[in-house]
Give the backbone structure.
Amino acid sequence: MSDSIYQTHKPAGGSDGLFLKLKDGDSVKMRIGTPPAIYEQSFTNEDGTVTISTRYAWAVYNRSEERAQVFSQGKSVFNQLADLVDEWGEPTEFDITVKRTGQQLETRYSVTPAPKSVSLTAEQIKEIATIDLLAAVKGHWLSDFDKSPPKDKVITDIDEPVNLDEMPPGFLT
């Protein structure tokens, strides 16, 4: 008897706790352990239409639960992390606290740098490394798609062909 897909497939976000899930009022201190991955998530609305959302994910060390997990969020959390880079450095260099407030369409996240960050131990780094982030979110490294030219380079050939097959589906929408 061959293995059934129901025996071999593990749905993302299952009860194994691989994905860090925040509920209204939760506040979690974590250290980001990887560069961001990017992927799309689709939702079927009540009227049957499908909404596609661009998501970002990181393998993190959850200080609250003392374990490595996948942390996945939308552009608001990504933008809040990006806003910290000038003053704090790369998000892998300091701890952050993420707080969720609200529910459904009223959900908001706040990202705050931790003034007293603690470096990851060798064991915590190894635990983060065991997470196959791209497989978990079925995504790509963001750095593979951020092909912005250097600021000092002027683009003169705007007719150069673009290979859309190299972009994740919906990336340009």
